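Sharing a chain and its predicted structure for anyone who wants a worked example. Both blocks are below, sequence first, tokens second.
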Amino acid sequence: MGVGVHLASENFAALLVEERDDRVVVLLNRPEVKNAIDQQMVDELHTVCAALEQNPKVLIIAGVDGVFASGADIAQLRERRRDDALQGINSTIFVRIAKLPMPVIAALDGYCLGGGAELAYAADFRIGTPNVRIGNPETGLGILAAAGASWRLKELVGEPLAKQILLAGLVLGADEARAANLITEIHDPADLLDAAHSLANRIGRQDPLAVRITKSVFHAPAEAHPLIDQLAQGILFESQAKFDRMQAFLDRNAAKKANAASTIPADGK
């Protein structure tokens, strides 16, 4: 067995990381370049993923100083060549984030462009502030959005709008992004992380194993259904949480009926 990753013992520089019992909060922390994603940030995100693969928890990702991420670090990107592209430096970490066992929440503020947008697309939930500007200007820089947007975005917003963003450089504001369901909630910047935690709390009230298996089944290819659903349900039907939660539901209903019956006068009037 491999050595476990303990986030508290890691020395992060490009990230601020807070680990709680049921979630991990990651803040992208390169304010001097508007949280542009560089190799060090990618490496540190891999460390976070390794920990969450070993000990599944909800992940909240946000940025410092009113910016989610302005994109990939252009100074590094300018020097990358064919072999770097074939390594899939950013796409590999975004796929890993998308495949984390528990849900990922992206809390967006300010610029969410290029690689920053692709990181957000990899999340299960996206919420934002009125200041959000989200899009993929890569073609204006002579490249394509190769870290997930070219295939993930059309699943999120549909092909016509995805082409406007990818081929014509359209950048969406918060209201436009919400209308397209690219983000689902808009909050004041001061309330953004609280809203992300509120969503994490809702997830936390569900059975963790049921959440993990539902996420896996949701992302399974079409040809895997309905067999994968049946197999997954078979696992959950045998879990102790299923029996405990269903018994608690039945007990609550029985108590409500008993209380209602006790309030009815004996003469029925």
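Comments welcome. The first helix runs from residue 39 to 54.
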